[in-house]
Amino acid sequence: MRTTHTLTALIAALLLLALPAIAQDTPNQQPAASDQTDTSAEADPALASPRAAMMSFLQAMNDAKDAPTPSVYQRATQTLDLPAGLPSESKRAAARELYAIVNRIGLVDPEQLPQQTDAERFRFYPQPEIVTHATFSARYPGYIIALTRDGTGNWRFSRDTLDNLHDFYIATETEQALAGVELDKTLIERIRAAVPRSLKGSTNLGLEHWQWIGIFLVILVGIILDRIARTILRTTWYRIERRTATASSEQPDTDTLDKAVRPFGLLAASGVWFFALTIGLLPPTPTMILLVAVKVIWITGLVWGGFKITDLVAEWLAKQAGKTETKFDDLLIPLVKRTAKVFITAVGLIYLASAFSIEILPLLTGLGIGGLAVAFAAKDTIENFFGSVAVILDRPFEIGDWIFVNDVEGTVEDLGFRSTRIRTFYNSLVTVPNATLVRAKVDNYGRRKYRRFKTMVNVTYDTPPEKIEAFCAGIREIIKLHPYTRKDYYHVWLNSFGAHSLDILVYMFFECPDWSIELREKHRFMLDIIRLADRLGVEFAFPTQTLHVAQLDPNAEHHPAKVPDTDAERRAVLEGRKLARELTQDQPWKHEMPGPVLFAEEFDSEWEARGDSAG
């Protein structure tokens, strides 16, 4: 697939659209009001007493009639002991329900609320001495509205009050407001107003019937949107691939397409579910439970999608790297791919911790001795990681190199954070820790510029010297003409008298990028030598033995050798010297001292052509 980067661009755009929603969704990790225990902090004047808290709440909600801004609702919701991770719309819905209930009970008299009290809890409703409270509680028994004081001295509507708030609101829905102002309806309130009465009022597990139907519809819409998003991405990518493919082997793989777009459909579905929860479809308690689940699904989709983008980018980069001569990028791309996935996983874990309202920094600082133990346990991992960094910086080998290290010989397949994988010539896979590579001696056969070839060509003893000269010169010429041989250094000489042959030394080098080419070119070179020998009539020698069977004559007479005279040895020496002078009297080196061996493209003189030079 040649255009995987096109899908990468499309998917990256979707992620960029998703990230702001995640950022907006991530709650400010402020502790809940009931968990604040810092007694050194001063109480907020607006929350300094039950009266101040109630008046602050009512004033903020009255202001929301004309200016329903987030800051106004923030003033109201700060008087509620709600979970910190609850969406703002759910907090706003809780404030509106509490405001409606208080108005249905009757006008709030500030004198009925204490300005100062040493108690930790104050019950605003029901107060038996107040007539409206007694009447209202008689019709709707079992519900209370209370305020509690936290560790800083701030008073807020209690958590148990808010837990039963939605049921209290539904039970008193038919009551008319006796005080306060009528607020503009929100989206959820308008939806609820349009729902038939038969689906409202009664609750099942704290939810009305219309809310259960809404949950089903939201899930269904999310699944449909999942399919639509996956189909659009898959179809777009498939068309681009077919348009740009130049060969049948480059046609897009449908299975790969399905797997690549799956996480982005999950993101689309979880986005719908997240939106439904943030607009206040459900009461605070189920909203908090389902919101955590949706966040987990969303984060899973983000991490999964990040992995797919990383794979696509790495695949495209690997194809680009295959067009370059260097193998360093082949070594670097898998490591960068793993680094990106580790980073994506770390970011996903941070978001996951925020979804469960887990503070990361206190968790890390609180490890203490446990952190020290983890550090000792991870010593080898850290050492191997820095070993991989050292391997990348020092570059003792690259992907595909043939290396020998610590009795392990093979081809480098992969470099990871912890180890390097080497495929041996037995096709087994050996994993070598990177820390070992830093300390070990690495013999890299793949970095050889030249590959030596040394052999003895054995010819028969009856080969004339002239043919040996021609044969050696022909081998030198083959070396010079061969496309994969080193032209500036080689030796082809009659080297020794063997037990059964005259031994010609062939010492030369191949300049090949890998072992396969070396074997192929060595094969061609030796075949050329065989053809040259056939054309010159030079025969190759092989070990032979001649067996003479003696037939002894018992009647044969023994004739002892003559005793040499005193001049016999001198005459033999003189004869040998005379013959040597006759053989060498016309040689060119009699008149000029031979220089160093030359490796020229052409012979400089006739005497070099006779074999007195390798050139």
Can you walk me through this structure?
It is a single chain. By secondary structure, this protein is of the alpha+beta class. The protein folds into four domains: 4-24 and 211-366, no CATH class; 31-184, no CATH class; 379-447, SH3 type barrels; 448-554 and 594-615, Alpha-Beta Plaits (2-Layer Sandwich). Helix content is 52%, strand content 11%. It has 20 helices and 13 strands. A five-stranded antiparallel beta sheet has the order 9-8-7-6-10. A three-stranded antiparallel beta sheet has the order 1-2-3. The chain has a three-stranded antiparallel beta sheet with strand order 11-13-12. Helix 1 packs antiparallel against helix 11, helix 10 packs antiparallel against helix 11 (284-321) and helix 17 (465-481) runs antiparallel to helix 18 (515-536). It is rod-shaped and about 160 Å long. The protein starts with a helix and ends with a helix.
Task: Provide a short characterization of the protein structure.
This protein has a five-stranded antiparallel sheet with strand order 9-8-7-6-10. A three-stranded antiparallel sheet has the order 1-2-3. The chain is α+β, with helices and mostly antiparallel strands and about 625 residues long. The model is unreliable at about 1-40 and about 600-615 (pLDDT under 50).
